[in-house]
Design goal:
heterodimer; B: alpha+beta; 3-stranded antiparallel beta sheet; elongated
Chain lengths: 247, 103
């Protein structure tokens, strides 16, 4: 797999796994309106994943389905944030705030990529990410500055998800090389914007920014948390049990 | 209180909103349905997700359902029946004079 394909696979895996996690809320959200909102976001992300996985697989003759359904855990290169369990609604919203803010900053820069496919995906996805961030922001405000119980849960969710943000802004030789050629965006460059936005929202929502500490990493190299295997089992079992099954 | 009763209570706490959407080529906002939301901003976002998934609109209004005053079915006759025999309110009541073209 060439470098551009690997980069596309990272972006695609982030979107795919986030979509899979969010769709767990289907029929389970606190209100039917919220059920639809979360699954709409999941569908946006699935759309991004399809384009990116198709692009990533093309050089090796692999389809989007080959990549989504027939890779093992160690072959996925998504960040660990997106594979974290949904938890309660506060955890889901926190994860979404962190991820959408990251995605929006990323895609707004990737629009200028010299790679036409990546630039095209970014142009469409930036609009979607702007809405996802807006949705998560609205709920962060309401839950953080809501009742004692909602505030307590939001603060707990922040503490739980915070360790996973550091990986979003890690760089390596591959992405540095690509960003030098104007293909990719170097993740550390996104951090100031991310911190400013999230910091502002947390302050407004009367929530405390957690301390930096433990910073698990390794998703980009195929190292995942213990939750990931269960997610893949659910996502892949149908295709693996009935190869080639389609609607 | 059971969990279901709790959920019912929470549900009641979210007011009902009526949703109006102006379609791409439409001039007016048309009523498309209703939904529950805790406040106006979230009602707008919920409306976007529930009622404009297929590019149905370019503009959304949400109105608290409680703020709408509606005529009741009991008042149907006093409200609407008297119009029935006032045929001169319809353009078809009037003869078109000879010589008027393009009408």
């Amino acid at each position: 797999m060439n470098d551009v394909a690997t980069y596309a696979l990272r972006l695609g895996d982030d979107a795919l796994i986030m979509a899979q996690r969010l769709s767990e809320w289907s029929s389970n959200a606190p209100e039917i309106e919220e059920d639809i909102a979360l699954t709409n976001i999941a569908l946006d992300l699935l759309g991004q994943a399809r384009t990116l996985l198709t692009y990533a697989g093309a050089p090796d003759g692999r389809t989007e389905d080959d990549l989504a359904y027939l890779r093992g855990e160690r072959e996925f290169v998504n960040c660990q944030l997106v594979e974290q369990p949904c938890g309660d609604f506060a955890v889901t919203i926190t994860r979404q705030l962190f991820f959408a803010t990251y995605q929006l900053a990323l895609y707004e820069r990737l629009i200028d990529s010299v790679d036409d496919t990546l630039a095209g995906v970014a142009a469409k996805a930036a609009k979607e990410a702007a809405y996802h961030r807006d949705h998560a922001t609205g709920w962060t405000m309401r839950l953080g500055d809501g009742t004692d119980e909602s505030h307590r849960r939001m603060q707990a969710a922040l503490e739980r998800m915070w360790p996973h943000i550091h990986e979003l802004f890690e760089s390596d030789e591959l992405v540095r090389g690509l960003s030098g050629r104007g293909v990719a965006v170097d993740p550390p460059s996104l951090r100031p914007e991310w911190s400013a936005y999230v910091g502002g929202i947390l302050a407004e929502a009367t929530l405390a920014r957690p301390e930096d500490g433990w910073a698990p990493s390794g998703g980009r190299r195929g190292l995942h948390s213990e939750h990931f295997g269960y997610l893949l089992a659910e996502m892949q079992h149908l295709n693996r049990s009935h190869p080639g099954a389609s609607w | 209180m059971t969990a279901d009763a709790d959920a019912d209570a929470a549900r009641r706490a979210w007011p009902l909103w009526e949703v109006f959407v102006r379609s791409r080529r439409g001039l007016t906002h048309n009523h498309v349905g209703s939904l529950h939301a805790p406040d106006a901003q979230l009602a707008l976002r919920n409306a976007r997700d529930v009622y404009t998934r297929r590019q149905e609109g370019v503009s959304i209004w949400v109105v608290p359902a409680a703020q709408i005053t509606a005529s009741s079915p009991d008042e149907k006759d006093p409200f609407f029946a008297p119009a029935a025999d006032k045929i001169y309110r319809y353009p078809t009541f009037y003869d078109i004079p000879d010589g008027v073209q393009h009408l």
